[in-house]
Design brief:
The termini are far apart. It contains four helices and six strands. The protein is 33% helix and 14% strand. The longest helix is centred in the first third of the chain and has 21 residues. The protein has a single domain, classed as Aspartate Aminotransferase, domain 1 (Alpha-Beta Complex). α1 packs antiparallel against α4 and α2 packs parallel to α4. It has a six-stranded antiparallel β-sheet with strand order 1-2-3-4-6-5, with helices on one face. With 184 residues, the chain is α+β, with helices and mostly antiparallel strands.
Length: 184
């Protein structure tokens, strides 16, 4: 017996496939289980809001490089965030970018923000968020899982060197792909 699929299922499958291809070829995201273990120790953080790290001194060159890398994604710009401390920079999506996960955004179109201490808050796919935490790259935001779409909301720790910056960049790119499905 031949099975027939309804068009909405086929369209949804095609959209997911295009998003995954875009993620792999355009953004370069392809962790699956390839996310490396973080080699530096995890900083202590607060368990409340504001959610911050203790005793971390960021390298301004690493923060600047991260801003440049993420700002180069199509439709991304930075602005002061209203969703964190006054000195945080939000990574926002321009109005022409299609959003696939509207509940996984802050303040309308912000998918991540960078704190002055070099840490970030970002919305990741929940499985990747869990893996990132297990491998030492971050911790759950105190509000993770308390709102629809917030199951993958984490703090990503301050990168200690350029090698860690590369991994942190890929995690933030994963957030971009997650909320846009690779929209270009």
């Amino acid at each position: 017996m031949q099975r027939r699929f309804k068009l909405p299922y086929q369209a949804r499958t095609l959209k997911v496939f295009v998003g995954l291809v875009s993620a792999f070829f355009f953004v370069g995201v392809g962790w699956a289980s390839d996310l490396p273990e973080r080699q530096t120790s995890a900083p202590e953080t607060t368990n409340s809001v504001p959610h911050i790290q203790y005793n971390v001194t960021p390298d301004p060159a690493l923060s600047a490089a991260l801003i440049d890398r993420i700002s180069d994604l199509p439709g991304v710009y930075t602005a002061n965030t209203a969703n964190s401390l006054a000195d945080a920079r939000g990574f926002r999506l321009s109005p022409d970018v299609t959003i696939s996960q509207p509940r996984s955004l802050l303040g309308g179109r912000e998918f991540a923000h960078l704190h002055a201490d070099g840490s970030l808050h970002a919305f990741l796919p929940p499985d990747l968020a869990t893996e990132a935490i297990e491998k030492g790259w971050g911790t759950w935001h105190p509000w993770a899982g308390q709102n629809p779409g917030w199951d993958g909301f984490i703090m990503i720790y301050t990168p200690a060197n350029f090698e860690e910056l590369n991994t942190v960049t890929e995690l933030v790119k994963s957030s971009y792909v997650y909320v846009t499905e690779g929209a270009q």
